[in-house]
Amino acid sequence: MTQQEFYHACTQALEKNGLAVYATAEYLEKFHALTEYMLEANKKMNITALRDEQSAISRHIVDCLLAAKHLPHSFPQGGGKLLDVGSGGGMPALPFAIVRPDLTITALDATAKKTAYIASAAEHLGLTNVNILTGRAEELGAKAPYRESFDMVCARAVAELRILMEWCIPFIKSGGYFLSLKGKNAEIELKNAQNAIKKLSCRLELDELCTLLEDEAEDLSSERHNLLFKKTKPTDKVYPRRNAQITKNPL
Question: Which residues contact 73 (CB under 8 A, 6 or more apart)?
C-alpha cells in the first residue's frame, strides 16, 4: 500500500466510524509512519498478529481512537498524566499520544523488548510526550512514585476486568479515571467485577457500546465497550495483592 493509498484507506475508516476529526494531514502522516514502523518491526519480534496496513488501520488505530474522546481535556491540577497498563505494542499509548500531545503518556509493560519497541517507535514518530516503564503492574502499583500518581489509567486487551482493575486502580489519584477498552464480553466481565469495583472504591461512569466498522462491503464489524470508571477515594493499602492471589482469587 502506497502512502497515498494508506491516507485514503485511513480517512475512509475514520469517517465511517465517526472519527473524521482525526483525518487531518498531520495525523494521517503519523498514523502512516506508526503503521509502517510497526509492521516492519513485527518481522523481527511479535508485536501484533496483524500483517497488513488495512487491518492495522481498523483494528489498531481506529479501535483505539474510538476511546480517545473519553480522555479528559482538563485535570484538576493541570497535570494530564496517563498510564497505559500492559501496553504491549503501544496500543493505545501511541495513538493517544499522537492525538493528545497535551498529555504525558506512560507505557507500562512487563516485557522489556516491548517497552524498548514503544520507546523506539515514539522516537521515530517524534513524540515527546511518551514515557516508558518496564515492570509488573502489581509490584509498581504498590510503590512510590507510581502509586496514586496518575490522572488516568487505560488498558486494552490485557485481562479480565476484575483482575485488570486490581492491577490498574492503585496507580490512579483519588478522583481520577480508569478507561478499559473491552470487546463483546464486557457485560459479563462488568457483572463479575462488581465486588472489585466496590473494594477498589470506584464507580462506573460510562459503558459505551460502539461498533467497529472494518469493511462495509464485506459487512465486517465487531462490538466494542469503552468502560469509564471514576476512583472515589484512595485505594486500601492491601491492594494490589500478590499476582498469584489476584489471578487465582479475583476480587
Answer: none
Minimal CA–CA distance to 181: which of 155, 205, 204, 202? 155
Whether 197 is covered by a domain: the verdict is yes
- Number of structural domains the chain divides into: 1
Contact in structure between 137 and 165 (CB atoms under 8 Å): no
Q: What is the pTM of this model?
A: 0.94
Neighbours of 192 (CB within 10 A): 15
- 115-168 pLDDT tens trace: 999 999 999 999 999 999 999 999 999 999 999 999 999 999 889 999 999 999
**Is there a domain that residue 168 lies in?**
yes
**202-215 and 220-231 as β-strands: parallel, antiparallel, unpaired?**
antiparallel
What's 150's domain CATH number? 3.40.50.150
Mean of the per-residue pLDDT values of the chain = 92
Q: Are 232 and 201 in contact (CB under 8 A)?
A: yes
The neighbour count for residue 215, using CB atoms within 10 Å, is: 13
Residue 66 lies inside a defined structural domain of this protein: no
φ, ψ of residue 105 to 5 degrees: the values are -115, 125
Cα–Cα distance, 57 to 175 (Å, whole number)? 33
Q: Residue 128 is part of which domain span?
A: 79-248
Does residue 60 form part of some domain?
no
pLDDT at 113 over 70: yes
pLDDT of 217 strictly over 50: no
**What was the pLDDT predicted at 77?**
60
